Amino acid sequence: MTEATETKTVAGESQKDIKGKLVWFIWEMQKQNYSKDTITTYSRCIKNLMKRKANLADPESVKEALARWKCGESHKHNIAAAYTLFLKMQGHTWNPPMFHVNRKLPFIPTEKELDALIAGTGRKTSVFLQTLKETAMRSGECSRLKWENVDLQRRTIILNEAEKNGNPRIFSISSTLEAMLTRLKKKTEYIFSSPSKTARSAAFYNERKRIAHKLGNPRLLKIGLHTFRHWKATMLYHETRDIVLVKEFLGHKTLDVTLLYIQIEKALFRNETENFTVKATKEPEEIQALLEVGFEYVCKKDDLMYFRKRK
Question: For residue 105, is it within any domain?
């Protein structure tokens, strides 16, 4: 079927019909078990197209609306993806525009800047941010955490509902986060009251603006919820130099995305002189003890095995 034929096939529908199909589209995504965040995002994309007078029954009209829309290529790509699914569920296709989405290197703040946001936000938001900082979860994953996922006695959090087909993970948490979680009231089964990240995001961005102004630090405005994940991954690689460990910690299926943090770490710490604590032994018990506390094997000389650990 040609594009012209496709356009003619669906162009006879009125906008009233399309609005009804928008409700149907949301219901179809729910039936096919799309995540709540995806449903919210895709339905918002379709609504925004309608607000910009795009005729959803005519792919050419949608292309024109996208061409006039003054937004980034990444945003346009997401809108086109939503419209593609919208058509697909009706048995139609289109030839979407080509968008050049370039991956940008993320902003990595200092730990002091992250801690300033954690300390300056309200109680629930501060616990949310501290959890992101220690676990590198995506904000949607963190929003869906239930109290049953937390073991305060063992100081662990289990993530079984990972986003983007990620692997499930278990995290050890600090005594600081344990105390913060203990002080929260258990009003619902969800730690942060709702499985939707929208409300938590809105609260964070409002408080971030206030804190940045109060501290006179505009860099804080560059910190998003996903920044905590980027920071943790970068610091974890810096501490361990183990990119596979970072991959598993983030729940990535492959190393392709994780490799980004090697580049970021090298750029951030290129001028840092590395200092190590060095130990030498030949006793099996001492070797085991060194490995258990994070020392790594370097070499063997004169019957002694040498180990080192970054200070």
Answer: no
Round to whole Å and give the CA distance between 104 and 260: 10
- pLDDT tens column, 219-258: 999 999 999 999 999 999 998 888 999 999 999 999 999 9
Give residue-wise pLDDT tens across range 94-142.
Answer: 999 998 877 788 999 999 999 999 999 999 999 999 999 999 999 999 9
pTM here is: 0.75
Question: Any bridge partners for residue 170, and if so which?
Answer: 158
Amino acid at 188: T
Position of tokens 């804190």? 211
Q: Which residue has the tokens 């080192």?
A: 308
- State the residue range of the domain holding 220: 111-268
Q: Please state, in angstroms and rounded to a whole number, the distance separating the CA atoms of residues 181 and 259.
A: 33
For 24, list phi and psi in degrees, rounded to 5.
-65, -40
Residues 258 and 118 in one domain: yes
Count: domains in the chain: 3
User: Do both 63 and 135 map to the same domain?
Assistant: no
pLDDT digits (tens, 9 = 90+) for 153-171: 999 999 998 998 899 999 9
Q: Note whether 137 and 257 are same-domain residues.
A: yes
DSSP conformation class of 190: B
- Does some domain include residue 9? yes
Residue 103 lies in a domain: no
DSSP run (H or E) holding 307 = strand 304-310
DSSP helix/strand/coil, 117: helix
